[in-house]
Amino acid sequence: MKYRIVGATVPAVEIIFDNAGESVFSQSGGMSWMTDGISMETNMRGGLGKSLGRMFTGESLFMANYTATAPNTSITFASTVPGEIVPVTVNPQTSLICQKGAFLCGQQGVNLNVTFTKRFSAGLLGGEGFILQKLSGQGMAFLEVDGDKVEFNLAPGQVLKVDSGNVVAFEDTVKYEIETVKGFKNIFFGGEGLFLTKLTGPGKVILQTQNIFEFANRIGSMIPSKG
Asked: What are phi and psi of 186, to 5 degrees?
């Protein structure tokens, strides 16, 4: 299997199947276009329990599996907002924890499951950081990044504090916590919200420059209300 990123403002990933039998999966409705010679099968990947869990991470209940029935075929998945598409590789030694909605598509050997912050109360209060996706298994996957991608390789004990909406993914070796912003004036007048995501190394961290939730709220505040 080969791939190439096409487009710039709202990019897409074109996956090229060299041989019949090669396959990828995505959430239902994620495909943009494909050539002839690819079959689609929709199912509850991993069963009902895992499917319901994925719904809480922003994915659909059903997942679509696309398999090449002939060599030299291709299928394309487009991002939903302006930004980048990032290829990542997972293996039994390295799993990735992703924000909900970051997963675009992946090879069949990749497992997509729901995971939670270790501290229930902190995750619940932290908004977007409560429910996460875990990519494990073996294979390549593609993630959506809103805006531009920024990567950090944290050393052991190195700390990075991030607005939750700017986190895309991090290796499972990175410790993840929700931290309350300190100070009355900072909370009410700082404009940064009540919580920050605290990431502690070692491990790789992928961030995005645009917080789509914040962007949507700003657009929504400009829409006149009826009455």
From this structure: -65, -40
